[in-house]
Write a structure and sequence with these properties.
10 strands, single chain, two-stranded antiparallel sheet, alpha/beta, about 35% helix, Rossmann fold
Length: about 250
């Protein structure tokens, strides 16, 4: 049976609140997937993502980047931008916030702390990529219509994670040159990476509330379905049936 709860954790003096979803009937600790929210904060959309991870058999941990009780509003471009801006400009701050979430999730009794992953939407996609760039010990991260550009304070640690990016080709916030630069960054770092590009698809394509063509945010039922399948395949590979690499026949 699916159980959900809110838990408090901290990053330094900042109190944060995660939403956790898991099967309370599971007899053994399960792999955990952090779910990082979009620029509106850890609202219902991110919590639903954590529940979907629980339905796949994992512990879903919806991360709080902004702080307990700190939320934006759907459609409030100015307000949401102001919430996101400090973390976009200070990637070390963002990495620290994601590492705090990872540490909190590892402590949960329901979690197999040797099997950790992360996924995120929009700003959350940037957040999980920064978790990977931090050198964190996570098996893989998935960015869903996320921002891909690296910050000005790169981490000195090697990326340990596999990386999946799900991207809409017509996303005005992530033009093709940003995708190419990201691919080159991952290749230069020796990362096992994938980029799935959906044609005719804009930003926020998994969010049913996205309906602003002028701003470039439009829900796509088809791309959303394909993204859900890609995520399921990715985490299954990480946690269940990862084959050995470079094994001679």
């Amino acid at each position: 049976m699916l159980k959900t709860e809110y838990i408090e954790y901290q990053d330094g003096d900042v109190v944060l609140e995660a939403y956790v979803a898991y099967d309370e009937d599971a007899k053994e600790p399960r792999p955990c997937v952090l779910v990082a929210h979009d620029w509106t904060g850890r609202r219902a959309y991110a919590c639903a993502g954590a529940e979907r991870m629980a339905e796949l058999g994992y512990v879903g941990f919806a991360v709080d980047v902004y702080g307990k009780g700190k939320f934006g509003k759907e459609g409030d471009v100015e307000g949401n931008s102001a919430l996101m801006k400090p973390f976009v400009e200070d990637r070390a701050l963002l990495r620290g916030r994601m590492l705090a979430a990872l540490a909190a999730a590892r402590k949960l009794s329901q979690v197999d702390d040797s099997n950790m992953g992360a996924m995120g939407y929009c700003f959350g996609g940037m957040s999980v990529l920064e978790l990977a760039r931090s050198g964190a010990d996570v098996k893989g991260v998935a960015s869903v219509h996320g921002l891909l550009f690296a910050g000005e304070a790169p981490s000195s640690k090697a990326i340990q994670s596999k990386v999946l990016v799900l991207h809409g080709h017509d996303d005005p916030m992530v033009p093709p040159e940003q995708v190419l630069a990201f691919e080159q960054e991952m290749s230069d770092a020796g990362v096992d990476w994938q980029v799935h590009v959906y044609g005719g698809t804009k930003h926020a394509f998994t969010n049913p509330g996205a309906n602003n063509p002028d701003f470039g945010t439009v829900y796509s039922q088809t791309a959303n379905r394909r993204a859900e399948q890609a995520l399921a395949n990715f985490f299954h590979e990480l946690f269940v049936d990862t084959p050995p690499l470079d094994v001679a026949p």
